[in-house]
Input
Amino acid sequence: MIDRYSRKELKEIWDEKNKYKIWLDIEIAAAQAMEKLKIIPKGVAAKVRRKAKINVDRIHKIEKKVHHDVIAFLTSVTEQVGMEGRFLHEGMTSSDVLDTCLNIQLLQSGKIIIKDIDEILKILKNKSLKYKKTVCIGRSHGIHAEPTTFGLKLASFYEEFKRNKKRMENAIKEISTCAISGAVGTFANIDPKVESHVAEKFNLRVEPISTQIIPRDRHAFYFSTLGIIAGSIERLATEIRNLQKTEIQEVEEFFDKKQKGSSAMPHKKNPILSENLTGLARMVRSYVVPALENISLWHERDISHSSVERNIGPDSTITLDFALNRLKNILKNMNVYPKKMLKNLDITKGLIFSQKVMIELTKRGFSRERAYSLVQKNAQNAWTKNISFYESLSKDSLINKKISNKDLTKMFDINYHTKKIDVIYKRVFK
Output
């Protein structure tokens, strides 16, 4: 991933030096177990720990000759350790190291992503409580529907990110396995106790049954989870973008005093951060399909998944971490305009109370179909003549027979739409 959309902590997880360090730790842990089982001489693991240093350049130089990254790594270690290095990797296959390492990196990345989500949840909760009673228009199909509150909007996102946190926790659990089972997963040349020891060292579970590799449905689940989280980011970002439109202007991204909006038009404040999140979310979701396609491999393994994972592993996690942090800053610093929300509520001159009027007419003897027709006729009349909905209804003789103007006025109470908010909040913020 490019530096522009990367944060240091996540980048370091996928840095080659860290990768090789994990490989070394896996090999040392396996050697420790083999020593206890008297498969290899005592002291090998300790010497490797003491003598072996990660030399990325040297590993690359060797790989250019042997065309095998794990062999190049082992050769580099042996050069430093001496003859004891020959006992490393005994009975193991490259995938034992590669797959266990990949799962560790995904685990490490997942924990940071959960931290990111926790920070977003905190901000969403605080903002939702702050704007709990801040009434704004709810829109369906982009059209004014009925009143809601800005707090409820944010509570909806809060609940969604709660689910995302749970999904990420499940994805981490799913991916937290270790396979040290040999060439085709039969343990023919290695004791299963070695695998158990390595798993314990890294706080992983043993893979119940592997081939040469850990089954890729686990990884597909993980990357699919990242894709869902990215979708949630985009949903929130899209809401902010829409609410920042000039003709709406209920919410606005923070705009720094020295910030420039347009190279051509000095007046503009563009929702560039939210737009950027939309793009980044598309990127993360694009990695889901290759992960799903990696599930089906030939027999006990092929390497068609390898090139995919070398790309999507770092790119998806780094991008999502960056996006979550950008979203956090947007939410923390965004400008909210309650007065504009109230002003926008009146754009349709009371049409937003149409359902309340229709329900009341059915209570007073009209069929639902008749009530709907009467209300719709008056709504269209109000819109066409640019008069208030109340005025149109109050002049309708059929409606006058059932509802007095005094009762009609009561139906245009904005508080009617907020009376059950506490029920929802108790469900969300348990």
User: Anything to note?
Assistant: The beta strands are 135-140, 143-149, 177-178, 205-206, 251-252, 335-336. The chain has a mean pLDDT of 95. The longest strand covers residues 143-149.
